[in-house]
Amino acid sequence: MNSSDIFKAFKLKKTTCRKAIIDMMLKEQKPLSEHEIKNQLMNEFDRTTFYRSFKTLEQYKVIHKIVLDKQEVKYALGHRQGQHVHFFCNSCQNVQCIETTQSYSFVLPKGYTVDETEILIKGICNQCRLVAL
Amino acid sequence: MNSSDIFKAFKLKKTTCRKAIIDMMLKEQKPLSEHEIKNQLMNEFDRTTFYRSFKTLEQYKVIHKIVLDKQEVKYALGHRQGQHVHFFCNSCQNVQCIETTQSYSFVLPKGYTVDETEILIKGICNQCRLVAL
DNA sequence: GTTGCATTTGCAACAATGTTGCAAATATAA
DNA sequence: TTATATTTGCAACATTGTTGCAAATGCAAC
């Protein structure tokens, strides 16, 4: 999977700035914040260009948002589907999309209906736990 | 429950700006975003003062954050405890803290441990559902 | 009530962040 | 290679948030 495939799949022009964003996300293999990406690309591109490219990728759902605590928002490639579980490691601060076939249901007041569920779990990932031992 | 009780309980000075924030939250009886509160109080107080007062209330956990999608963050009085479920109504855009005795557990990869869970459910609240009928 | 003191407030100046219009550059399809 | 719609970079601007500091305020002790 490279950026060209993505641009074809979404029928988007492969511009240098968009490509730089996608490439960085493909390379890092973990959700990144807009800032993390922006700071890397600030030398290469104009602020305006970055904002516009990033917004486009979000609009077309090439990337999806993961909302964490403390104003921190990360982005991952692909689009969210159905019930989505994200894991935030309090130690390494990394975020993961947890794939699960499990479907969770919640107790709600009478008459409430559910469209979408977002679950954020904070804890310690296996790698950090092993390091701590 | 009035603002004076809150200031006593948290051993915070009852300043005019802090009081205005608390009073607004008590009156509205639903989580509000920092913007919603700020805009209301902009005429009355300096921007700086508002930011500082708001930050203090958050620091002392007089209010707690509810992170929604699209950069939208709301705040509710009181502090979050244990597993917390928030409900966002896609129709009226209001947020509620759902009180539940239920404890939910999630399937995670091997070795992962959980500290805290944040659950955001988006759907239609009972009131909006009834209106739609 | 008055006083004293730590805290908070408002202001000015500034820094950072994001937005808009527009001309030049670029991507893609013909 | 050309034509055309889209994207880019720039300048100017708007908004948002931060800092230092003097004046005002809250509150506790008297």
Helix-strand layout with pairing:
2 copies of one chain form a homodimer.
Chain A: H1 3-10, H2 16-28, E1 32-33, H3 34-41, H4 47-59, E2 63-67, E3 73-77, E4 84-89, E5 95-98, E6 113-124, H5 126-132
Parallel strand pairs in A: 4-6
Antiparallel strand pairs in A: 1-3, 2-3, 4-5
The structure holds a DNA duplex (30 and 30 nucleotides).
Could you explain the architecture of this structure?
The structure is a homodimer of 133-residue chains. The radius of gyration of chain A is 17 Å and the shape is globular. With 133 residues, chain A is an alpha+beta fold. Chain A is built from 5 helices and 6 strands, in the order ααβααβββββα. The mean pLDDT of chain A is 87. Helix content of chain A is 37%, strand content 26%. In chain A, a hairpin with a 5-residue loop joins β4 (84-89) and β5 (95-98). The A-B interface holds A 65, 67-71, 73, 85, 87, 90, 98, 100, 102, 104, 106-126, 129-130 and B 65, 67-71, 73, 85, 87, 90, 98, 100, 102, 104, 106-126, 129-130. β6 of chain A pairs antiparallel with β6 (113-124) of chain B, so a sheet runs across the interface. Chain A binds a DNA duplex (30 and 30 nucleotides) through α2 and α4.
